[in-house]
């Protein structure tokens, strides 16, 4: 390989971005792991480190408490827990990262859903002394529900079990078996001590029996799929551009961000939900005409026909257009403090389209501990995950969440005050037979508006 090719390869590798989230039970050491990762990878500014050292000394701690690098809220520091999702951005010569440090408490399950919803990898921490606990299984189930493609089991606090291999092996086997049953496609187990730095950035001298990667090495080398041409191409229209100037008297373009896949000049597309068809005559990106554009580029698409297209419409290749529907079956995580009830009127936001909707059924509520179901609960409360059936006032073009995390997801919103009620994932829940079956009910539908 020539020097120029090697340099190009290194540049391309350095531009890849990995979004990942950390999760685990209370006091398993998530924030300490994140702090150690930032500190040992030289991603902490000097003034940040000095502030942490000062705060640690004021609390009577000799060594700097690296958890303070992520626990930024006063309540988090005082209680020694993580309450809200903390996002951190850092980079190494091999890759860029966006990290979401999520809370471990049961009452903050909705925060973990937020942090993991865009993640390509989840790091689930386990205290080596306690092994796989209820919250560990809950976080593995959430990762499976959100179709996170890579899961790392970080068995933390190995220094407190004398770095014994059998302890790690037993935990890794139990977790791997459970997560595999949920349909998690890839699981990597790593024994670590976040406090001491073992196997976080540098290999541990205390665990010579472990020959796998460190946490950072795995994060830098895990494959991140960027073959977007294999995805279903989807373009939600955000804005219609009609300058009507002397320079551009007849210009009509449809602006937005490509959600998935690629679009090419000359390709026949279908406009949804209307079903009208046309051909792409031009694509403008950053003021320049291009022949092809792909996700997540923001572009303007021009069509051969002047058809009625507005914000919220979806452009898709005519040979690969999703079906439209007004009846949506989905798994939702309820994130609001007040309940979501059968018969409740809501707004449903899907990509750039927001429509009126009504909750027709809540067939089941999921118990993530053992994946059992509570049929027909009538309502979902904060942090509940359950199946819902929603009827929309207008047709929507949704993909199954399993096929597209971007166009298979939606939000349910309170029309009274704009509060987000629930985050939804269309289609089946888990990737295996563990999926919660939708219980058929004979709800009376008299009085529905649509």
Description:
This protein is α+β, with helices and mostly antiparallel strands and 450 residues long. 20% of the residues lie in helices and 33% in strands. The chain has 8 helices and 25 strands. Strands 7, 8, 9, 11, 12, 13, 15 and 16 form an 8-stranded antiparallel sheet that branches. Strands 2-3-1-4-5-6 form a 6-stranded mixed sheet, sandwiched between helices. A 6-stranded antiparallel β-barrel has the order 17-23-20-19-24-25. The longest helix is centred in the middle third of the chain and has 18 residues, at 165-182. The radius of gyration is 24 Å and the shape is globular.
The level of helicity is 10-25%
Beta-strand percentage? Answer: 25-35%
The chain-level structural class is alpha+beta
Globular, elongated, flat, extended or rod-shaped: what is the shape? Answer: globular
Radius of gyration: 24 Å
Distance between the termini: 63 Å
The total count of helices amounts to 8
Low-confidence stretches at least 5 residues in length (pLDDT < 50)?
1-5, 8-14, 72-82, 433-450
Strand tally:
25
On the 0 to 100 scale, the average pLDDT is 83
| Main sheet record | 8 strands, antiparallel
